[in-house]
């Protein structure tokens, strides 16, 4: 350890001072340290105030990343001149007046300290005019300032200059001008996404950077998140009791290497909540590779009394009264949206076409026996021959004699049926033993047959397993381990949930837990580590997604090894059967790792390739 550090660590404590009240200026500067940590925080607070004032048009002007100047102008209700000094005072607000108001907050801002905190670390000028006033009024952020007449249209302008001019130590922690501007621009984008009914304009150093006119949410989200998201998103709008979730979820093809395309709002407020993030991430785990991040714009609406937005000074975190119910609702809503296929996304999936015995080869006796034995012994589920009648042979050897299943369903190898009723159309040929080429009403469809068949098998395995109750594996010798008070309390409070998950865990003492049974699916896992993980999940989210993830990993491996291989020649009836299965299978548009299983080439795309019509 450097010698220079030792005296500082061993230095005597400063002699105690008498208890005294802090000055208003110091109190505001302390509050500013929590709320106004960088220019983007100022932008956020002022934009929220503008929206609370009923604005329909907001202009944001920045200079030098917001450090030199932040000027935000709105066309809202305005502030009467007699109330303008109060607007700059600490803990003064028009948005709450009682504890009941605080527990039912419906506005974005409500703490009554934003303007006072900003004025304590910057030079602030407030100009405002109500609709019945003959002219605007102006006041500076100094407590000795007077309200004076000014010019301006209806609404309010807050002009913030020289941020941290009187706290140079804090100014040293700011990043470069472009970095700070980037943070400010992101705040404007977040708020613009939440209010497509409001027009926003953003300029930096005198140049207009972005402008959003009033538009529907689909156009606003496409403008903010870009064309890649707009072309690969699914709409979502579900309600359950007091909860409503609506917006768009991106397809796995719109995923990113960073989590910078994720926008979640609770009652119009942008939040970063680990419970909500976990719920959405869990819904994607079946279609997205672990190192990729989904993109989405989602809004959760609920009774304000069911959520506490006052748990963090910046109001970016929330706490739900029933976190488990919210988690499960969001998870299932997003899962159902992602379960849409090429068929269900455009209407009702077609009914299965009448079977033609002998059209689809079935597994050889040896393969069927091996597959069924693995499934029955490894996962505790009885064999269901009928469930797998539509699966394809996995042999790569030409000329093998295989059984044929009378339960297989497929579309005939003709195109006499209306193609618009079958989104993936009908097969034309096979390319290099890897891709299926099909014709639909739009043009040409290319299918990766192994990836598509893998998804079909995977979903069938999951459905078969879900049809049975959770199989339990009793332990010959209970596994005991030391547990803390939180783990013991979670065990005692959530016995019903643990039993539903296939666990028998009980407390032997205030510091010891015993595991007597675990799910048969995970009978080879470390019982102690498994129990700790499950208890942690239940404590944080009300259930355990970890079990589902482990189960699905095993089923995914089995589906991958069982799916039809590349270089396997398929007949037209077999290819058509694959297309029909894809249309009737959830999440069939992506493989288990998020890659597309098929792509569409429209006739217009083909015309461009051949310069037709030019």
How would you describe this protein?
This protein is α+β, with helices and mostly antiparallel strands. The protein has 20 helices and 22 strands. β7 (199-204) and β8 (207-212) form a beta hairpin. α3 (39-52) packs parallel to α8 (177-194), α8 runs antiparallel to α9 (217-225) and α14 (449-466) packs across α18 (545-562). The longest helix has 18 residues, at 177-194. It is flat, with a radius of gyration of 31 Å. Residues 346-417 have low confidence and may be disordered.
Mean pLDDT score: 79
How many β-strand runs? 22
Q: Could you tell me the strand content as a percent range?
A: 15-25%
Strand order of the largest sheet: 5-4-3-6-2-1-7-8
How is this structure best summarized?
The chain is α+β, with helices and mostly antiparallel strands.
Main traits of this protein?
614 residues, alpha+beta, Heat Shock Protein 90, Ribosomal Protein S5, domain 2, formyl-coa transferase, domain 3, 3 domains, 8-stranded mixed beta sheet, 20 helices
List the topology elements.
Layout: H1 5-10, H2 24-35, H3 39-52, E1 57-63, E2 69-74, H4 84-87, H5 99-102, H6 114-121, E3 123-129, E4 136-140, E5 148-150, E6 155-161, H7 168-171, H8 177-194, E7 199-204, E8 207-212, H9 217-225, H10 227-230, E9 233-240, E10 243-250, E11 262-266, E12 269-270, H11 274-284, E13 296-301, E14 307-308, E15 319-320, H12 323-338, H13 365-379, E16 426-431, E17 435-439, E18 443-448, H14 449-466, E19 472-482, H15 485-493, H16 495-500, E20 504-509, E21 512-519, H17 527-541, H18 545-562, H19 572-583, E22 598-602, H20 603-609
Parallel strand pairs: 1-7, 11-13
Antiparallel strand pairs: 1-2, 2-6, 3-4, 3-6, 4-5, 7-8, 9-10, 10-13, 11-12, 14-15, 16-17, 17-18, 18-22, 19-21, 20-21
Helix pairs in contact: 2-6, 3-8, 8-9, 11-12, 14-18, 14-19
């Amino acid at each position: 350890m450097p010698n220079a550090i030792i005296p500082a660590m061993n230095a005597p404590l400063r002699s105690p001072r008498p208890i005294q009240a802090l000055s208003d200026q110091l109190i505001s500067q302390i509050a500013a340290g929590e709320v106004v940590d960088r220019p983007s925080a100022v932008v956020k607070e002022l934009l929220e105030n503008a929206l609370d004032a009923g604005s329909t048009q907001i202009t944001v002007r920045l200079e030098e990343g917001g450090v030199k100047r932040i000027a935000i102008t709105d066309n809202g209700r305005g502030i009467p001149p007699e109330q303008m000094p109060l607007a700059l005072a600490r803990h003064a607000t028009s948005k709450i007046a009682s504890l009941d108001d605080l527990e039912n907050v419906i506005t974005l801002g409500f703490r009554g300290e934003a303007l006072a905190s900003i004025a304590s670390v910057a030079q602030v000028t407030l100009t405002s005019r109500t609709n019945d006033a003959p002219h605007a009024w102006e006041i500076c952020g100094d407590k000795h300032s007077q309200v004076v007449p000014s010019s301006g249209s209806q609404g309010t302008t807050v002009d913030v200059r020289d941020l941290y001019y009187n706290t140079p130590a804090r100014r040293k922690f700011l990043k470069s001008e472009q970095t700070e501007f980037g943070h400010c621009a992101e705040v404007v984008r977040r708020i613009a996404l939440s209010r497509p009914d409001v027009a926003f304009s953003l300029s930096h150093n005198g140049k207009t950077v972005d402008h959003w006119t009033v538009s529907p949410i689909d156009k606003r989200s496409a403008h903010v998140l870009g064309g890649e998201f707009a072309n690969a998103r699914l709409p979502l709008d579900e309600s359950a009791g007091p909860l409503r979730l609506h917006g768009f979820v991106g397809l796995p093809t719109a995923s990113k290497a960073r989590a910078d395309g994720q926008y979640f709002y609770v009652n119009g407020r942008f939040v970063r909540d680990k419970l909500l993030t976990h719920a959405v991430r869990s819904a994607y785990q079946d279609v997205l590779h672990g190192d990729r991040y989904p993109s989405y714009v989602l809004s959760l609406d609920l009774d304000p009394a069911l959520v506490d937005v006052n748990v963090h000074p910046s109001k970016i975190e929330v706490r739900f009264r029933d976190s488990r119910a919210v988690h499960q609702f969001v998870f299932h809503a997003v899962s159902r949206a992602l379960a849409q296929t090429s068929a269900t996304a455009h209407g009702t999936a077609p009914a299965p076409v009448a079977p033609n015995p002998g059209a689809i080869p079935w597994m050889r006796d040896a393969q069927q026996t091996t597959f069924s034995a693995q499934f029955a012994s490894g996962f505790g589920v009885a064999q269901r021959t009928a469930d797998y009648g539509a699966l394809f042979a996995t042999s790569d050897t030409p000329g093998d004699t295989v059984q044929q299943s009378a339960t297989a369903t497929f579309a005939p190898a003709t195109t006499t049926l209306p193609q618009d009723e079958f989104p993936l159309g009908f097969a034309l040929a096979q390319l290099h033993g890897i891709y299926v080429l099909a014709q639909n009403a739009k043009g040409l469809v290319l299918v990766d047959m192994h990836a598509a068949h893998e998804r079909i098998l995977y979903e069938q395995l999951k459905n078969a397993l879900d049809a049975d109750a959770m199989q339990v594996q009793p332990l010959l010798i209970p596994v005991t381990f030391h547990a803390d008070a939180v783990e013991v309390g979670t065990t005692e409070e959530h016995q019903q949930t643990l039993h539903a998950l296939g666990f028998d865990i009980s407390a032997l003492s205030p510091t010891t837990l015993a595991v007597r049974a675990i799910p048969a699916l995970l009978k080879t896992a470390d019982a102690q580590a498994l129990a700790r993980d499950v208890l942690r999940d239940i404590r944080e989210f009300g259930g355990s997604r970890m079990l589902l993830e482990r189960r699905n990993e095993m089923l995914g491996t089995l589906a991958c090894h069982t799916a039809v291989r590349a270089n396997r020649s398929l007949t037209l009836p077999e290819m058509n059967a694959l297309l029909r299965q894809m249309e009737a299978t959830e999440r069939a548009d992506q493989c288990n790792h998020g890659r597309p299983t098929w792509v569409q080439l429209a006739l217009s795309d083909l015309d461009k390739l051949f310069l037709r019509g030019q």
